[in-house]
Write a structure and sequence with these properties.
Elements: H1 2-27, E1 43-45, E2 48-50, E3 53-58, E4 63-67, H2 72-79, E5 90-95, E6 104-112, E7 115-120, E8 125-129, E9 143-150
């Protein structure tokens, strides 16, 4: 009889423990991390020149003076050639989907060093986007559409 009582008591204890775990889990649910695309289909950054390099800040994703290098900087030089004082800042609107008014398209080529190489048919050249790209997209998009325009102060 004691053996049956011990088993019954063990099952009751396990049931209570399980109920407590479920209750605690409901009080403190995991908060899923979100990327910018969870919220927006179009993203905006405002690159500017710092120490001779194109950089941008985006506190929403923890970036400060994040540089564009390896060909993307040259693409930017060409894209902003007609924007007065672009080195003081310009607006870049971008998306993995084509949108009305986009100026050019970057096509994915390959991964390297944690970043990704993209080709611009408009500029006939490749440029490398660093791993910060993944702050905006869950994976490297096959295409990135971009609109460049002056900042409106």
């Amino acid at each position: 009889m004691l053996n049956e009582m011990e088993r019954f008591s063990t099952w009751i204890s396990l049931g209570i423990a399980l109920a407590l775990v479920v209750a605690i889990a409901k009080l403190h649910p995991d908060k899923p991390t979100r990327t910018v695309p969870d919220v927006n289909a179009l993203m905006i950054i405002a690159p500017y020149k710092y120490e001779g390099a194109w950089v941008f800040d985006d506190p929403a994703v923890g970036l400060f003076r994040e540089p564009f290098i390896a060909g993307i900087d040259t693409m930017i030089d060409k894209a902003v050639a007609k924007i007065p004082n672009a080195e003081d800042g310009f607006r870049a609107i971008f998306s993995a989907r084509q949108f009305p008014g986009s100026d050019f398209k970057l096509e994915w080529r390959r991964e390297e060093s944690g970043g990704n190489w993209y080709y611009s048919d408009q500029f006939k050249m490749e440029g490398w986007l660093c791993p910060a790209l993944l702050k905006y997209f869950p994976g490297a998009p096959r295409e990135i559409y971009v609109k460049i325009e002056p900042l409106q102060h």
